[in-house]
Sequence to fold (321 residues):
Amino acid sequence: MSNIPWQERPADSTDVIWRYDANPVVKRDAIPSSNSIFNSAVVEFDGGYAGVFRCDNKAVQMNIFAGFSKDGINWEINHDPISFQAGNTDMIESDYKYDPRVVFIEDRYWITWCNGYHGPTIGIGYTFDFKDFFQCENAFLPFNRNGVLFPEKIDGKYAMLSRPSDNGHTPFGDIYISYSPDMKYWGEHRCVMKVTPFTESAWQCTKIGAGPIPILTEEGWLTFYHGVINTCNGFRYSMGAAILDKDRPDKVLYRSKPYLLSPQTPYECMGDVPNVVFPCAALHSIEEDKVAIYYGAADTVTGLAFGRISEILKFVKENSL
Ligand code: BMA
Fold:
C-alpha cells in the first residue's frame, strides 16, 4: 500500500477530479518570509515526501525552497531558498526561479523551473538528497516556461515538454517536446499540441502549458496541463488532461474538451492573481488507481485534488477533442 494523500470522492459529487476538503495544504505564510507559496512540486522521498516550493517573498521576489513531509499534507518548508552549486556548467546565473517540477530519473531527482536569464527560460538542476543541489545548463534560449521532464528516457534520450513564450504575461502558447542525450544539449523540437479554437473548447483557447510529470499508463502518457482563456476579467487558468503515445509522445491520442478542474472555490478565485488553478505535481499509484494532484491556487496557496486514474483515462477518451 502506498501512503499517498487520499480522500474518497464526496458522496454528492460526480466530478472526475475532486478537491481535498481541508485545502489549501500549504498556506501563503507557511514560512516567515513568504508572501505566497504556490505552483510547487512534490515527490516520494526517503519513506515520505520532499518538495520544491515556489515561495515569493514579501519583496515579491520569486525563488524555490526545499520542503519535507511524512504524509504529503503537512509540510515543513526550509526558511532559506535552495542554493545551487555548479552542475554540468559554471553558468548558473539566475535572476529568479519559479514554477518548479521534480522527477526521479535513474539515480537522482531532477528539478526544472522557470529560470530568469535575460527573461524566463527553463533551468535544470539535480539533487540526490534535497540538501545539496546542482544547477545545469538552461535547456533553451529565452523565452520559455513550463519545462516538464518525462520520468524515463524515450528511445534512449531524456525528453522534456515546454512552452515557448515571451517576456511578459504571454498571450499565446503551445506545448512542444525536445530531446537530449545528456541533459545539457536539447534538440529534435516537435510540436505536441496547440491551443483550441474558441468555439470548440474555450477554456484552453489562449495558451496551454504542461503541468505535472506525465504518468505512464496502459493507454499512454497521462499528461495534466493548464489551459487559459483571456476573459474581460483577465486570464483564467484551468486544468485538462491529454494522453500521449507511449513511444512517440509528440503524438496526442486523446485530449479533454471539457476541463477537469477550474477555479471555483474562494481560494482559487481570490488571491494575488484571481482565477488560477495551476497543477505542477502529481503523486500516483497505478495499483491503487489513485492520483493526488498539487496545484497553485490564485498564485497564493497550494491545493490538493484527487482522482481515479482509470476514470480520468475513460473521461478523457470519451470527451476528447
Ligand atoms: C504564468 C506564470 C505562473 C502563474 C500564472 C498565473 O505566466 O507566471 O507562475 O501562476 O502566470 O498568474
Summary: Residues 33-318 form a domain with the Tachylectin-2; Chain A fold (CATH 2.115.10.20).
